[in-house]
Amino acid sequence: MRIPTEGLRSKSCHEFAARQAPALDFVFTVCDNAAGEACPYWPGQPMTAHWSLPDPAAVTGSESDQWIAVRSVFQALENRIKIFTSLPLGSLDRIKLQECVNAIGKQPASPE
After folding, report:
1. For residue 92, which of 25, 40, 28 has the smallest C-alpha distance?
2. Is 110 a residue whose pLDDT tops 90?
3. pLDDT of 17-41, one tens digit each?
4. Is 3 helix (H, G, I), strand (E, B) or coil?
5. How confident is the model at residue 37, as a pLDDT?
6. What pLDDT, on a 0 to 100 scale, did the predictor assign at position 73?
7. What's the rounded mean pLDDT across residues 38-65?
8. N or C: which end of the chain has fewer CB within 10 A?
9. What does each C-alpha distance from 90 to 24, 80, 100 come to in angstroms?
10. In the chain, where the domains are located
11. CA-CA distances (angstroms) from residue 54 to 12, 18, 25, 76, 101?
12. Would you call 102 helix, strand, or coil by DSSP?
């Protein structure tokens, strides 16, 4: 997707449970496989939502098929993040905000 990744790395959820971990306001899980697993404890009680998406790494087939899967998930996340960042966070109470982040996760993964 031509996004610079230098200096970035995957992190274990355990890093965010450490005493010196940054405070989290929101936690979004995305992998369909995670939906049936127990969620870890997130210190500070951040708002959580599951934004189910298929795992593009599980796609078999041609390189083109794999690229299409990655692109589809990327576009879905990009759309959901744009919707999330457009929410009027300061004017929503916690219950309404939770409803909104849950609804965003129900947006189709690909255009219908």
Report:
1. 25
2. no
3. 788 888 899 999 887 665 566 677 7
4. coil
5. 65
6. 92
7. 87
8. C
9. 17, 19, 13
10. 22-104
11. 20, 29, 25, 10, 18
12. helix
pTM above 0.85, yes or no: no
For 84, the token pair is 């999330």
Closest by alpha carbon to 85, among 22, 25, 2, 7?
25
Residue 79 pLDDT greater than 60, yes or no: yes
Of the CA atoms within 13 Å of residue 111, those in its CB half-sphere come to 4
If you average pLDDT over residues 34-57, what whole number do you get? 81
Query: For residue 29, what pLDDT is reported?
Result: 86
- Give yes or no for a contact between 48 and 26, defined as CB atoms under 8 angstroms apart: yes
Contact between 72 and 53 (Cβ < 8 Å):
no
CA distance 108 to 54: 11
As a whole number of angstroms, the distance between CA 100 and CA 38 comes to 22
Per the listing, tokens 């998930």 go with 73
Number of H helices, E strands in the chain: 2, 2
